[in-house]
Design a protein that fits this description.
Helix 2 packs parallel to helix 3 and helix 6 packs across helix 7. The protein is α/β, with parallel strands linked by helices. A 10-stranded mixed beta sheet has the order 7-6-5-4-3-2-1-8-9-10.
Length: about 325
């Protein structure tokens, strides 16, 4: 068990001045290889590349310096992609061993499509307590292989394997036009999978965003905001009728907010609802580009590159971070949405 330290002199000074970031989540897109061909892929065309070992060493040096300088107490390192289960297991092991020494508390996450689950990768995940999250396409129309075939069954097999070994992963469901009018079907499938896994299924509903393949005009994937809202309402009604047998975000958050009132401050909010993502998240890709988060990497909204400037300097000079840090306060001052 690691013991907390007070950080460097600069970190203690930042703490006294209220400038310290006690927690940081790094979204690490260390590869753009993938084993599926999702219609809504936000990365777009993949080149099948993986970060060079020397580039990761530079990333680790810069991240370690940032953690010390800012006095970071809790560091969350998220393997993203591409598909992170395609990383070499020995490289994953190296990353974990290097990162887990950087802060008093270190957590590892992995966002995987679970189409493959190599035993060697699973072993690394179990040794270093990597929490695996996934996403689901119960209809097999948007998550497909290179030949357009559904990948639902291999996903289900690996999901149930993880559930057999420990707590099952939470899953994201991306709402596209093919989802509309099918909220109850989504609920039925998730409820059934939870029964098979012996645990309440945890679902996060996300609107598809216009990035990568979904941004192409001919994709025809984008539902209107009104249609997305109708899907959420339909899903909420089923959720209530069935006795809330699965967990659904953000519906569960909204439900508690209306029950508890505007002064309620839930713990563990998703970054989209937390109001402080500018202080808590950073994304770094295989070319050492830096952005505010994983999605900003996908949209190539880079704020710097580690080959040109240190990570701390990139973040301190970022006008985007400065703007986003004021966003929550600005929204509270305006008419509530």
């Amino acid at each position: 068990m690691k013991t907390a330290n007070k950080g460097t002199l600069a970190g203690r000074k930042n703490l006294r001045q209220g400038k310290v970031r006690p927690a940081l989540t790094v979204i690490f897109k260390g590869l753009d290889k993938c084993n599926s061909a999702c219609t809504y892929c936000s990365v777009g065309d993949t080149g099948g590349r993986v970060i060079e070992a020397g580039d990761f060493d530079l990333l680790a040096e810069q991240l370690e310096q940032l953690v010390k300088s800012w006095g970071i107490h809790r560091l969350t390192f998220t393997f993203h992609g591409g598909e992170p289960t395609l990383l070499d297991p020995s490289f994953m092991e190296k990353v974990c061993k290097r990162v887990e020494k950087m802060a008093p508390v270190v957590n590892f996450n992995m966002q995987s499509n679970l189409i493959s689950l190599p035993p060697e990768v699973l072993q690394v995940a179990e040794i270093h307590l990597i929490h695996i999250g996934t996403s689901i396409d119960p209809f097999g129309v948007d998550r497909v292989d290179k030949k357009g075939r559904s990948l639902f069954l291999p996903w289900l097999r690996n999901y149930l394997e993880l559930a057999r070994r420990g707590p099952p992963p939470g899953a994201i469901y991306v709402v596209t036009k093919s989802s509309l009018g099918r909220a109850e079907q989504v609920y039925n499938v998730c409820e059934a999978i939870g029964a098979l896994a012996g645990a309440r299924f945890s679902l996060q509903v996300n609107h598809i965003y216009a990035q990568g393949k979904a941004s192409e005009p001919e994709s025809g994937l984008m539902p209107t905001p009104e249609a997305f809202g109708e899907f959420l309402v339909e899903l909420w009604k089923v959720w209530e009728k069935r006795g809330r047998t699965i967990s659904i975000g953000p519906i569960g958050i909204f439900s508690e907010y209306f029950r508890r009132g505007p002064d309620w401050e839930p713990a563990g909010l998703l970054c989209a609802f937390a109001g402080d993502c500018s202080k808590s998240h950073v994304g770094i890709d295989l070319d050492l580009n830096v952005a505010g988060c994983g999605r900003r990497l996908d949209s190539k909204a880079f704020i710097g590159n580690l080959r040109q400037k240190p990570l701390e300097e990139i973040l301190q000079e970022s006008s985007e971070w400065a703007q986003i840090s004021k966003r929550a306060q600005k929204l509270r001052q305006e008419e509530p949405c």
